[in-house]
Amino acid sequence: MSDPAALLGELVRIPSVGGSPGEVRIQERLADWMHAAGLEVDHWPIDLDELTARPDFPGAEAARTRAWGLVGRLPGTGGGRSLMFNAHVDVVPPGEPSAWSGDPFSGRVEGDLLYGRGSCDMKGGLVAALTAVEELSAHRPRGDVLVACVVGEEDGGLGTYALLDRGWRADACVIPEPTGLAVVPAAAGALTFRLRVPGLAAHAARRGSGVSAVEKFLPVFAALRALEERRNAGADPLFARWDLAYPLEIGTVRAGDWASSVPGELVAEGRIGVALDEPPDQARRALEDAVGHACAADPWLAVHPVTVEWWGGQFAPARTSDAAFVTAMVAATEGRAEQWAAPYGSDLRLLTAAGIPAVQYGPGDVDLAHAPGEHVPLSQVREAARTLTRLAAQHCG
Asked: Are residues 9 and 96 in the same domain?
């Protein structure tokens, strides 16, 4: 059997940031692992031009010239239900290196913790799934067990979209996202937007003759904070553990082009959370209306309104309606798992929309995802592997 810590450390040391060569390289390494483990392997180039041009494409933010899909199949002995483990291999950039105590892609181990970008989100869960499949290969269940390694999850869902387009399906699916070994049968949505706030450029020494786009952004930002508060009132009880079920945040702000000028435009990009069972268009209208009301209350913006663009990842909310599979997942944890909903978008919505009952379950604390010092407890990776093995044995027969 493979050593989960050694495999996880190796995978973390591949810097598979979305859109980078590492995103291609990690798929090659995982395909080699699958071949060596005796799985049937489907490793194919994704037709980016064709898929991204489709009207239902879920969006992307990272620029890519190449992307690969990968599925490993452990054939069952016959007559059982199939189960898919769906894990994304792309990671977000590590951010400022000085915020890390060492190489962000070191994969170093300190006690029970393995450190590095992607260790928690979600290579730890991927290794748990691979370990489970390796264990199952010795005593195959009746149904097939699949491991899908997907790219582009962090910025829209390219990999799972391509996986489904290629025809891969299963009777149920586990997404080993970092849930701290809780069972997550539902996830909020998240829509990426861009605001363009107009100003009037002028020399800073004569700022009264211009209009600062930064200043005009302030009432818009306040309106978005008020909108977030309204949208979180009475959130679904599955979100009770979170301070905000449906966060709305501005992630980037760019304004002006010269330090001694009044900035003539501000561009802000962010995301708005979509409530469970809420149509994404309804969330879009809510944000557009809030921006519109803020503009109407300002003499400059009333004449020169802020524009709203929807781009990048567009994650609809989702919940699994198959109560029996959720119950089976909890039972596989030997009844120890909590249940809650995730306040972030994920590939859960693509799988459930395709008619595949899916839950999220995996090692690691989601608060560490995308953060400096990201790490995952190896004990949780091993426990997740045991749970996924039990689930497959029960579900697949």
From this structure: yes
